[in-house]
């Protein structure tokens, strides 16, 4: 199967997979999700994604319908059924299927697990990003990886229509993150990014990158920065599980970065090594 679809234990091509219209993901986006890369059918950062998934579920009081080991086994069924050994795995858990009412379903309603895989070329780290700034009109729970992504969808589309690859969110002058990535800057040798509070998603790639920077002796500051800091950065880094990390070449049509190449190169090499080591079979 090219795109393997999974719903509550049933596996079939994603293109024909049906789910009930009463799934609360359909009308409330009432659920959480994760997305990560696999290479040679080895999932990169699986444990970290599972940790964040469990945390998102806990914050939404969404009960896990199975143990962590069972969940891993179910998701691996999806990966194993995929033709390509390299790709992306997506999964989401919704608060079950019931007639629409806002409060939680009856306790005997089980959450629904949906997953799918998509073959994908592995990131090359080479592509430079063009960014567009967009006011961050999201709510105050951006740390929970919920299915409610409308402001991100609108921002990503605005970026695309402006000929850009990603939208950079800002609340007033403060830069938070991107529509589906985190953002970091290098200035005077220091790697800086918004703290992992309720205004950003605690990205797994962001977390890996900060740990690698610390290992390399690169100073890290988890403090918010402004739009002016972004425009004057020595380099701008964008991170996500599907692209891993890339640098920006332009923000709102104005060239940016290119002045911390050596530091970016060291981080890139360290990240590539981590990715290659974690996804090469033992
Ligand atoms: N997006 N911030 C937001 C708002 C995101 O949606 C994502 C991930 C990130 C980066 O997190 P991570 O490094 O864990 O992927 C930051 C995924 C890829 C998506 O929505 O498909």
Hetero groups in this structure are: N-(5'-phosphopyridoxyl)-D-alanine
Round the Cα radius of gyration to an integer and report it: 19 Å
Number of strands: 16
Uncertain segments are none
| Arithmetic mean of pLDDT | 97
Distance between the termini: 26 Å
Strand content is: 25-35%
Order of helices and strands: EEHEEHHEEEHEEEEHEEHEEEH
Largest sheet: 10 strands, mixed
Number of helices: 7
Question: Structural class, from helix and strand content?
Answer: alpha+beta
Overall geometry: globular
What portion of residues is helical?
25-40%
How would you describe this protein?
- The chain is α+β, with helices and mostly antiparallel strands.
- 28% of the residues lie in helices and 29% in strands.
- The protein has 7 helices and 16 strands.
- The strands form 2 sheets. Strands 7, 8, 9, 10, 11, 12, 13, 14, 15 and 16 form a 10-stranded mixed beta sheet that branches.
- A hairpin with a 2-residue loop joins strand 1 and strand 2.
- The longest helix is centred in the C-terminal third of the chain and has 18 residues.
- The chain is globular, with a radius of gyration of 19 Å.
- The relative contact order is 0.15.
- The model has no long low-confidence stretch (mean pLDDT 97).
- The site of N-(5'-phosphopyridoxyl)-D-alanine has 15 residues, from helix 5 and strand 14.
